[in-house]
Amino acid sequence: MKELVSVIVPILNPQINPTEERILHHCLNTLEKYPIIFITYEGADLSIVKEHNEDIDVIYFPQKYFQSRAHLAALFLMEDFYDRFSWCDFLLIHELNSWIVKDELYYWCKQGYDYLKAGPVLGNDSKHLSSIFSRLKGLTNDEKQVVGRAFTNNGIYLCRIERMINSIKAKRKVVYGYRHNDNLDNADSVFWELEANRFWPHLRKPTEIVRNHFATDAANVNLKKTLPFALTGISKENIHDLPYFKSLPEAS
Fold this sequence. Notes:
By secondary structure, the chain is an alpha/beta fold. It has helices spanning about 20-30, 45-50, 70-75, 80-85, 105-110, 140-150, 160-170, 170-180, 185-195, 210-215, 245; strands at about 5-10, 35-40, 55-60, 90-95, 100, 115, 155-160, 215, 230.
């Protein structure tokens, strides 16, 4: 019988900073009842990670995919990546720039969606997206770059493995172009956002309202309302200024 979900934590730079280490520690505690698997390259020094859990599970991929976030994006657009986790139905990809507010992972796996991710934070860049809603026509390269930048530090998504593989197979030529586009930030997020359901709905995605209940940017969180499952957009530069983290006790 398959596992319902596994949590995947990518480690690009083994020398993780204190903010990433804090997020890692929180992830291991909050999601401890699920399989947590680290992905990195052969020979990576995981001593800092092992300080939090000596008996970690690690799956290795070629080192080229861990040179930068752009290279990691290419890995997340490969059928072989999802095939490696065929023992479970879902993957929660959890990069160390996102924070689990509360364990609702089982709930979200049972909601009938194939792909859940916080929406892009466009801000003032939205004025450059005149055709953002023209999904059949498609966006220009400049507009795709705007969307890509809007996914910076948006590193958590839940996906159904079988449907991700089927989408990649159905869009093989388009996926190849995204995987080899060196001028596009967060190419994986842009592909799943714009292309996966273009012309035909390969993935069951939630409405914007539901999506915001799954995850939202930490800078936009309203502490007076019900908090989402996860917060995104967290870095060492902003963690001390974000309202959610200001409200936490120092010891947490």
